[in-house]
Structures
1.
Amino acid sequence: MIVKSLLVEDDEYKADSLQEAMPRNYQIRIARSVSSAVRAVVEDIFDVVFLDMALPTFEKNAGSGSGSSQPQGGVEVLRALKFINKKTKIIIVSQYSGVEVDNDFVQLRDSARVLSEKYSLDVVGAVAYDFEDDGWRIDLSEVMERI
């Protein structure tokens, strides 16, 4: 069975690492900014969204910037999913120890529960990504088993 997935990640190395960790049956579309992620969830239906929380406003283009960096960019994607009432599973993947939700710092380990409750979405888990330690791969596999 093909699992249609959206990977929302602006860091190319991290996006490549995440793709390598996913099973072969995961069909992956990549969005590298808030605007491209929102466009993707509006235009298409995904079984799962892998969501980084800190994202630039726009994609980087040759000769131009990517807009302002948004520490809560992922929250904008969650708001879009709620607004259009799309039911998809969401997995938070972050390099940070927590996320900011309405000016409150939420520990990453609690973020799935808090974001699920706040936005009435199915945030199945959160994974702490680490460039230097592959332990996140095990955590990602465990969260993906809940899908």
Note: DSSP finds five helices and nine strands in the chain.
2.
Amino acid sequence: MTLEVAILFPVVLLIIFGGIQAALYFHARGVALSAAQQGVRVAKAENGTAGAGSAAARSFVSQAGGTDVLTGLDVGSSRNVDRASVTVSGRPLSVLPGIPNFRVTQSAHGPVEQFTAPGGVAP
């Protein structure tokens, strides 16, 4: 009986920690996507900027747990006349030592808001 336990116990622990690692990965992925969406909402506003979009995305990650969720956070944003884009990437926490941590990268894009006066003429 002890031999079976000695063989099965590490396998069971690996399965448990593998499930926890998967949950941490998917949570970090969801936070990165939400941060990118928040950043693009700010960047695509009529008077928004790419810098404001990056700041909003960083603020979102900070409020969602900061380095407890994503380590090595990298936020990139761009905005031109027609489109705004924000990309958030980082690494989820690792509970499995010796296994390389996967990088999470999520992006959000959207058209820049442009308002026109009644009659279709730009102000």
Note: Residues 76 and 87 are 5 Å apart (CA to CA).
3.
Amino acid sequence: MTTTAIGGQSGAVRAGTADDGYLPTRPIVRIHLLGSMRATSYLGDDVLPRSKKARAALAHLCLTPGARVPRARLATMLWERVRPEQARVNLRQAVFDLTMAMGPLAGELISTGRATIRLNTEACWIDALALLKSPYSNPTTRADLAVLCPGELLEGFDDVNEPFGEWLANERIRFKERLASSLDAVLGQVDRGDFDPEQVETVARRLLSFDPAHQHAWNAVIRALAKRGEQKQALSEYERCRQTLEAVRVKPWTETEQLYEHLRVEAPQRNRQSIVQVSPEVHRGAMDVRSIGRSAR
């Protein structure tokens, strides 16, 4: 059965890629959109359709969580160079390929109407959506996801066709912006007090992959390395930070320069570890490095 959106058009209002309400209650399928696309059932069976157009249709449904997507939109997006009647036939075949790949789970995952198609994302775990959950969710889980979910959104799908490529380019921009904002919030949660250097470095480096000029992330990487006693590597990261910022005509923060000077003095001294302690009040734009202590010899 189709629904009617505001304005009288068939279908539903499009849910955004970064839908903060995405909270799968009982996932029976895991779908990976970052890097090489994969889909497996809760039993570990491969449920990804073979056809690239069917995979592209599934990806579009994943990135419009909970929405009833108009068949006409999908057909036009995936087969823009054929007649509308043929495009609709091709879409029916792609949906058939998708349901066949999902086997007995298809009835619970795919809802089809005469004019719309919907993926039950509440029954799916989707890596891209999991990374874009509310920044107030568990920061440890989010840090782990930053490691487990690397890669570009839908790698290898740029050549599906021109309309899909344009849609994908926009989705990648939106995804990167939202993920950078989300990881920034997570970094603020884990980078405080007696922080875990591995966790902080992981989140900070993932954030730098999206925003190379993010100074709080650079400082976090440098302090994480220093806390592990890797002063030389920390100094190298400062140099990378300086060069990156110079390329965009930005100067390092005063706090960054102070941290560098301390590490430069400490590095030659008998291979001692420098443990960097950050006050609990970590403010964006004005990091307060209260003390840089030394570990026991």
Note: The longest strand covers residues 29-32.
4.
Amino acid sequence: MWLALFLLGALVPLAHAVRLGEFSWVAGGLLLAAVPFAGTLALVGLLQFRRARPWASRRWALLWGLLVATGASSYVNGLLGGGPEWRTVVLLAPVVEELAKGVGLLLLARFGRVRNPVDGIVYALLIGGGFSLVENTFYFFNAISAELGGNDGVLQDVFVMRGLVAPLAHPIFAAALGVTLGTRYGRRPLVLLAALGSGIALHALWNHAAVSGVVTNLVPHTVALTLALAAAALLRAHRESGDVGERPAPQERDLEERHDGAARVGTTITSWYAALPWYEQAAGTPARTTGQPPDKTRGARTVEDPGPGNVEE
């Protein structure tokens, strides 16, 4: 089911890329979009320095942002859009896109993957980062087209704004809901609506600043806010590591990596079962549930004790 959903979501951006036709420009846009995406992944790695979240859940979150959230948002925005640009960009897009990203966070929380605020931040970064990767690819494509059409400086302006000034825009909007889901009262309907509404409001304000042309005046404030939020997330992760305890023993980490490595994307549909958010819980292996190494004697041929009378001198 998840494989079908991911493939269905991938059809929308792929169809858009095919319609554009200039695949070299699309590839150039993807290369530029990889710069802020790499920064997002680096922040995710820093947040997990002491305790890594399950690989299957991280991969699922990234695929949700890359394929499902972008595909659904693009389709709905195209279906309901039209009319004044302000209405589409400021009123419609923030609601649709934050709902699409938020559903992925709610599913992760539903199956027990968001247990504290840092969990919510990590998965919000992955979902929002995947969403930004696809969105920025087409923004940079349009900038490349404009640059080659004679509009000098367009690509530079777009890259500075989307790649350097606000690379964490979508992850920050999604993190409003992610952090809330990891708190004690995060599952209450009114609290969830307030968290989702705050993410939508931030998104709408940012889009309004872009449409009205005042976004360049907000560059220092945006950079300062992004750095402050990243520092706050890192500080919370550091405190969480102190609450949880020291880093697990090397043997336990090796076992976890081997277990997760078997669940990586493979060449068969069966391997995609590992993309389910509840994969590790459903698998229930002894190494995962108890932290003990597997019984190496299981399945091996047993040798009966010959007894003291049968031992050769």
Note: The radius of gyration is 23 Å.
